[in-house]
What we know:
Layout: H1 3-12, H2 16-28, H3 35-40, H4 43-56, H5 62-69, H6 74-81, H7 85-92, E1 99-103, E2 106-116, H8 122-127, E3 136-145, E4 159-164, E5 176-183, E6 186-193, E7 205-210, E8 218-220, E9 226-228, E10 236-241, H9 250-259, H10 283-290, E11 293-301, E12 311-314, E13 318-321, H11 324-330, E14 334-340, E15 345-354, E16 357-365, H12 369-372, H13 374-382
Antiparallel strand pairs: 1-2, 2-3, 3-6, 4-7, 5-6, 7-10, 8-9, 11-16, 12-13, 14-15, 15-16
Helix pairs in contact: 1-4, 2-4, 6-7
Amino acid sequence: MSKIxxxxxxxxxxxxxxxxxxxxxxxxxxxxxxxxxxxxxxKFMRTAAAVAVITVLGVGTVSGxxxxxxxxxxxxVVQIVTEDNELAxxxxxxxxxxxxxxxxxxxxxxxxxxTTKDVxxxxxxxxxxxxxxxxxxxxxxxxxxxxKTKTDFAGKAFSIVPMIKGLVPFQFAQNWMxxxxxxxxxxxxxxxxxxxxxxxxxxxxxxxxxxxxxxVAYYVAKNGEIKRQEQTDTLNALFEVKxxxxxxxxxxxxxALIEMxxxxxxxxxxxxxxxxxxxxxxxxxxxxxxxxxxxxxxDDELPVDVLGRPIYGTPELGQWSARKNYLEKTGKVDYExxxxxxxxxxxxIAVELRDGKYYQNVYQYKGDAKxxxxxxxxxxxxxxx
Length: 385
């Protein structure tokens, strides 16, 4: 809850039912700003509702307010979409930082989140593969085609992408499930994520709303900030979520990340665990390929994630976390690669640790990689799709 609203509520000594009524009025009273309505409100409703409207409708313009005002409240969305009245009550009692973004033919509205510590629903645990990191986070968002486009929802499936500053998007994979309905031409979704986002609030937390799983839809900038890829024709809205900083716990967050397989399973191991079926090329293989490659990026200093691992790659190619253990314990170059089989394009990334900092050189192979390089052929044979 906003500190301003919280202080107002405390000063006015409002109970939960009165708080809930205020938030109901914000969404359901279409004349909440009018003088006539304010004359009808008693003193505490005038004061708290005015503060709440300013905080909740953080969209910055009259047109933004008019748009948000016509949407269903998050409480009403939860009631209709999930029929979970207990969860709906939690949304009804909590102020939300509503945000709106237009993106590639759609208007996406983030309507807020609440956390739940005590998860008793066995099916929910099963759907989230039993991984509940200090509870769950429940998110509500809405999607609507803009007036300027003829885009509709035919064949569209929208998903959420939880992201944290300094972590590679999509590689930090949180389990989530969602329920959605189209109501009066607006796509409403209630999504449940398998952890309490407030734990990650030691830094910035983001929510992506996308119609793609393309790993280049979002990327990590040099300062660790998450950015959306501008040069794309897919929906990839991005919101920075305000979390409860009092619940932030970086050590607990790191433990959760490792449990989610983001990081080294064995801190003492030299080699990170290799997945069955991965094609392994030798140092000589990489050096041979590099000798017939164009240098695209030289001595590019890399950002590191919250576990201290370098983030290599580029926003255009995609990004991954390099093998920190291997680099630290061997002093060798960590060669990574990305092969686009549709275009027969091979990129090789050489990551080095020098004087406590990580650097990368990025190369593009100039020949026919599938024909020239046996390890690329092996990769194509192993994954024939």
